[in-house]
């Protein structure tokens, strides 16, 4: 009998431990990531696993900062980021998950880093740069 790794360490299971997630990973290995992405995008309604898989791909590609991504129109990039944040917001709002301190610390740090540009002092600095 296959033992779930989450049970072994007393960690509550997440989407990553489900059979549906494992099925998506198998499908990705069989079809390839691009084909799986195209298949998911064509659907009107996505499963939780599909939503998380797409968000994982977005994080991977936006984290690369490669030349191709640098050619992306800045407005489109911002729209994409806002769409990711909205999805993240809805997921957290609906499920209101119990997060352990490490995960809460990680999320807090990343969000604190991401607030650059929204506080008053930084916005004033950016306005001065724009005027020059």
Description:
The protein contains eight helices and no strands. The chain is 73% helix and 0% strand.
How would a crystallographer describe the biggest sheet?
none
Counting helices, strands and paired strands, the structural category is mainly alpha
Low-confidence segments, given as residue ranges, are: none
What is the number of beta strands?
0
Strand content: under 5%
Using only CA atoms, what is the Rg? Answer: 19 Å
Shape: globular
End-to-end CA span = 67 Å
> What is the count of DSSP helices, taking H or I runs of 4+ residues?
8
Nearest-integer average pLDDT: 84
Order of helices and strands: HHHHHHHH
Helix content: over 70%
Summarize the structure.
With 132 residues, this protein is mainly α. Helices cover 73% and strands 0% of the residues.
Which key phrases capture this entry?
8 helices; 132 residues; 0% strand; mainly alpha
Secondary structure layout:
Blueprint lengths: L4 H5 L9 H13 L1 H10 L5 H17 L2 H4 L3 H22 L5 H14 L5 H12 L1
Helix pairs in contact: 2-3
